[in-house]
Amino acid sequence: MLDTRIRTELEHTQTRLLESGQLPTQETLQQCYGRFRERFGPEVLVGLGGEELLNRMHLHGSHDSLVYWLEFKDDEELPAAFGSISGGSALKFGVFKSQETGAWTTGSSRDMRAIDTAQAVAIATKHRDQLLAGVRILEALPAAAGAADYDKLQRRMDTEAPDVSRLAWGHKYFSLLFPERLDDYHSEEYQRHHLIRLLQMPPQPPQRYRMALPFLELARELGWPMNHLTSVLNRRNGPPRTIWRIGTRVDESDAWPFMRDYAVIAIGWPKLGDLSGLETGRAGREAVRQKLLTDYYSGGAQAGVATRKAGEIRHFVQAISAGDLVLVCDGQTVRGVGRATDDPYRFDPAAHSDVPHQRPVEWISLGDWTLPVAEGLRTTVCKLGKYDDNLLALERRLLDARNGAPRAQPTPGRSPLGQVRLDGIGGQVQSILERKGQVILYGPPGTGKTYHARNVARDLAAASAFGDHFDALQPEQRAQIDGDGAVPGLLRICTFHPAYGYEDFLEGYRPVKGADGQLAFERRDGIFKQLCADAASAPNRRFYLLIDEINRGDIPRIFGELLTLLEKDKRGQRVHLPLTGDGFSVPPNVFVIATMNTADRSIALLDTALRRRFGFIELMPDMALLAGAVVGDSIPLDSWLAALNQRILAHVGRDARNLQIGHAYLLSQGKPVGSFDAFVRVLAEEIVPLLEEYCYEDYEVLSGILGTGLVDVSHQRVRRELLTSDARDALISALLAPTPELTTRAEVAQSEAVAAEDDEVNDREGDAEDVPDGATS
């Protein structure tokens, strides 16, 4: 049975893909399968022979060949939606015609050899005969086939069609002819990956045809065609992941507390020094091995140990990539699960002299649990993945973490940006600030850029000062973060605009009226210079500047020489300011978070020097935050906004992606607007005026976005008389006209909400009946 949490994730993913038109309809699927059978089905292949058969099956240069359709075809006849077999060379098909020599070629990458046409025809004939045999085997499979039937299918394929059934292209051929009997994952690695992500134990041994059954059963359970299921799984699960085990023991000490609090994985061997410039491949491993033999493993008996450890160390420095999962283990006990970030390897003996080789990670789950099967216990760094039991245990842990299961939090320690490790967008901001010192949140209007920037800055400042999130602080502690009106806090906020200048940001002279009433000029420090001065006097605290709408200012003029000083490796360096001649530097405990509305200006237009010094995080409309909300009994907010943005993308043209409408317009205090009146106000006062600005009085385009019911093209106007609660029915009709199917979705959502409410009432009534006499409830 499918875990209900996974089922919910799959159904939400399918809904998003359907709404965006990324899933083919049942009719389209059947047409594609039919076209493929018309060209390459058994009825066609059986009638071919000689060079005609060879060319129809294996001539890569022909767009009418079987191998071209299986690997490269991507158009209306057969879109690339039936599982990829790309990668590798043409040798994977057993025979191909070389473009360089014009000769038919076979063999392996190490032993390619040219053959004559008769030999090539013989190979193609053998392939054709085995394809026909495989078709007969699949046709004989019972309609309600079970595990025993699929075991038999695997055995028969192995014996009667071994040269094609064991290859990805052969499996894809069969799956296009029998989509109701096979999945369209064409490698055991992908099948195993997706089954484990579904918490399903893969059949043993894991072979292509045997592993089709779990996917078929799931497709039947969900009521989806196989192609929809695998497309949804691809979107939810992604490709197979690399998983690493990192040991925590260094001699007799435990490095886990340091790794946990600093959000890093770390290994020992400090005498090796900085390995940032290590050569790749065997040369790098050999260089590490020689150093190990010199400093750690002297003597012939330990040469083998040095070789193995050199490979582990090189993997740690070079092979772990962004997105890889990392299990930090003490024996079989998993202490934490993290995801490698895109931050590079670093050598930092000042942070921890025993484990100076470090890689930043984002913790996903903290708290001890046990790997079911011992794996990699004698290594410091190794890949996991040999045992399905371990992978299933990890997947259960990750699913619990995604669904809010209680988990241990890091112990307050010496994390570079405070003791609290943030999740989600906050975690991304935190990671970039650790690496670069400044970050810009950018995206279309209404995507929560300022909201996230302020909250993250508050949390990070609170973490550095008090070791906790901002919401957990006492009022007097919060005042130290935000300031109390008289004394500025650890977080300062400014907004750039066309008149904002260097004198506002760093320093300048301002006119003041003297005691004698005469006008004079007084030098004043700008907000950033004041912040840097305060940070220099309190090096144990971290100070944050939030710059809202950074792209609305003349950035090179405002920042001046500050652009150079912002770089992490330039922090602390002093320059003399041109206006006053004062020495100035940016302390290392200063961090900048900025926001940028891409509807005003594309990120590509930002000053190159600025882009080089900031990290960037894109925030786009997130319909999930509106899921389940329906206004006016007819308009599902998430689907309506998604459809509106799709029409913006279709009609606005260049840069339309940056002109979408953000979800925050339809949120109130963090929740979807609940009343139709509130929705109408947002529509009339914010969304429609913004769209009018986008369209530059082009009412044809505007009507394509809002619909002809709301835009009167002939009179060049918006029907504002509909933008009131009094015109409720007419407005709903106008809003739903471009996408009438939203009505059905809203009705379903409403009926589910009513059913849930009824169930809750029934549950409460049932509980009341179960209360024994004399008891209180």
Secondary structure: helix percent: 40-55%
Poorly predicted segments:
406-419, 744-749, 752-777
The N- to C-terminal Cα distance equals 35 Å
Shape: globular
Give your account of this protein's structure.
With 777 residues, this protein is of the alpha+beta class. The chain has 29 helices and 27 strands. The strands form 9 sheets. Strands 4, 7, 8, 9, 10, 11 and 12 form a 7-stranded mixed beta sheet that branches. It has a 5-stranded parallel beta sheet with strand order 14-17-20-13-21, sandwiched between helices. Strands 1-2-3 form a 3-stranded antiparallel beta sheet. A hairpin with a 6-residue loop joins β1 and β2. α6 packs antiparallel against α7. The longest helix is centred in the last third of the chain and has 30 residues, at 741-770. Mean pLDDT is 87; it is low at 406-419, 744-749 and 752-777.
List the helices and strands and how they pair.
Blueprint (H helix, E strand, L loop, with lengths): L3 H16 L6 H15 L1 H4 L4 H9 L7 H6 L24 E2 L6 E5 L2 E5 L1 H23 L7 H14 L1 H4 L2 H10 L10 H10 L14 H11 L3 H12 L5 E5 L1 E2 L2 E2 L1 H7 L1 E4 L13 H15 L7 H17 L5 E6 L2 E8 L5 E2 L9 E14 L10 E4 L3 H15 L21 H12 L2 E6 L5 H18 L8 H8 L8 E5 L6 H4 L1 E7 L5 E7 L1 H11 L5 E6 L6 H5 L2 H4 L9 E2 L6 E2 L5 E8 L10 H6 L1 E4 L11 E2 L3 E2 H15 L15 E2 L2 E2 L3 H20 L3 H8 L4 E2 L4 E2 L9 H9 L4 H30 L7
Parallel strand pairs: 4-8, 13-20, 13-21, 14-17, 17-20
Antiparallel strand pairs: 1-2, 2-3, 4-12, 5-6, 7-11, 8-9, 9-11, 10-11, 15-16, 18-19, 22-23, 24-25, 26-27
Helix pairs in contact: 1-12, 4-6, 6-7, 6-9, 14-15, 17-18, 18-19, 25-27, 26-27
